[in-house]
Amino acid sequence: MGNSLRAAALLAFVVLSILVSLLISSVQQFGAHGVFNVTRGEEQLPEALISQLSERRREIVPLLSLNGDEDNFSDEPLDSTWDARVWDKSARGASRASVDGMGCDSLVDMQALEVLGSGYTKLVVKANLAGGLSVALKLVNEQGIDMGKCLEEFNEPEACRQLVAYKLKKEMVLLKRLQHPNVIGLRGHCESQRRAAEAEGQGGAEGGRLAVILEQGTPLQMIQLLQSPWEDRFKVCLDLVHLLHFLSRSPLGSVALLDFQPRQFVMVSGTLKLTDLDDISAELTHCRTGADCTLLFPQRNFTVPCVRGVCEGLNQKRNMYNAYRYFFTYLLPHQAPPTLTHLVDHIMNSTGELKGDINETLQAFEELLAQYQSGAHLHNLPAAELTDYLLLRRVGGSGGEYRCWLSYSAQGCVLSVHSPREAAHICNSHSQCSSFSLTGQRTWSGRLLASFRSSSAQLGPDSTSDVYVKKTTVSVSPSL
């Protein structure tokens, strides 16, 4: 109980100190096992508000009943006791969700809070937990448009907060259903509950506050990506294709990302992850003819077949073209290895024209990756170039840094190479390069990182490094 109260006080501090104008009303009590309930007061709410609460529950019901061994939640009445009977039994069932199981206790002693963003519905806050783990907390945005509209229409703060919180609950269920390496990880959640005694006589629904706990990511910065090495940009596109392949056959069926924008993604330890599941749809588009199956985009339109009354592959095609116009166009062709441009061009043409499906796209990306990793695209490099260099083992370099385009280091020239032979070819193409070193450090694809230096570099013993020096410039101590 002590930890629960401490967590309650801490989240109240977040509400009142960082989000002063956003979350003004006090947080009465938090409990590690609290449930965000609707109780006896709901029948006193305006009929239109009751209808909206029921509609939000109705949106979640199909997401709760996917496996034959689960309860049939569609038979549950969508009345004021829905949360107690359904939500606590299913959505919070840790035994059926492979999440970390963090709760209010996990938020005790969190610090270094920072608002990451806000929208119509949600506020996202960064928090450092005890032990140094950083997480993202999603909360109801109490000054967001959704909350404002509800208050303006009904003036029922508790019920409006709950109405908006259902969007967070829906997203939490989706995160459990759509677990994938390229979907943000759900760590758990913390829910508050007003004491029943406090709610009596006040009318309306019993309200609480919900914090969804997610793994911490870094917002995707397209401008920064455009200045990154091609290999890293390719990795972002490859991750996206893996995600779209999963969404084409997810536990919910074929899922469309209706708000497909770079801002919906974050980077976590070099991996692209979808972080906002507000606007996804697994609904099939019904049709009578192909004319009913048109995808409308600003620059052009596409039509998919109408098969047995359903637009075949519409969600998948929508995702693929959005990936092309928001990601591939900017990240994939620029600075691609010249001998791989034919594979890149094939991907760009097939996705830009929607000529293939996601399976063929994934296959094309995997072929491109295999060629890049194997070094097969380098077979035409002159083998004799490496003979121009003297190999010095267990030797490192310092100084002599110069900058080059798309370097892994802002202070020098660090590029990925398949082998010393490719590094020698690159060094020969740089007028200021006189040596390069390899430490065995590798990129995500397994390629080596090579540091290129000018003739002013100083060489010395280094057990982790080998240096290749141009024979025409070598001037080292015999001891090396």
Indicate the mean pLDDT. 83
According to DSSP, the number of beta strands is: 21
* Through-space gap between termini: 66 Å
- Helix content estimate: 25-40%
What gross morphology would you assign?
Answer: globular
As laid out across the biggest beta sheet, the strand order is: 1-2-3-5-4
Assembly state (oligomeric): single chain
Strand content: 15-25%
Alpha-carbon Rg, integer: 28 Å
Walk me through this protein's architecture.
With 480 residues, this protein is of the alpha+beta class. It has 12 helices and 21 strands. The strands form 7 sheets. Strands 1-2-3-5-4 form a 5-stranded antiparallel beta sheet, covered by helices on one side. A hairpin with a 2-residue loop joins β13 and β14. α4 runs antiparallel to α5. The radius of gyration is 28 Å and the shape is globular. About 9% of the residues have low confidence.
Characteristics:
480 residues; alpha+beta; 5-stranded antiparallel beta sheet; 20% strand; globular
Short recap of the structure:
By secondary structure, the protein is α+β, with helices and mostly antiparallel strands. It is 32% helix and 20% strand. Residues 15-40, 94-98 and 195-206 have low confidence and may be disordered.
How is the secondary structure organized here?
Elements: H1 2-18, H2 47-64, H3 82-87, E1 111-118, E2 122-128, E3 134-140, H4 145-154, H5 157-177, E4 186-191, H6 196-199, E5 210-215, E6 218-219, H7 222-226, H8 230-247, E7 256-257, E8 265-268, E9 271-274, E10 280-281, E11 294-296, E12 301-303, E13 306-307, E14 310-311, H9 314-331, H10 341-352, H11 358-374, E15 389-392, E16 395-398, E17 413-417, H12 420-429, E18 435-442, E19 448-453, E20 458-461, E21 466-470
Helix pairs in contact: 2-5, 4-5, 8-9, 8-11, 10-11
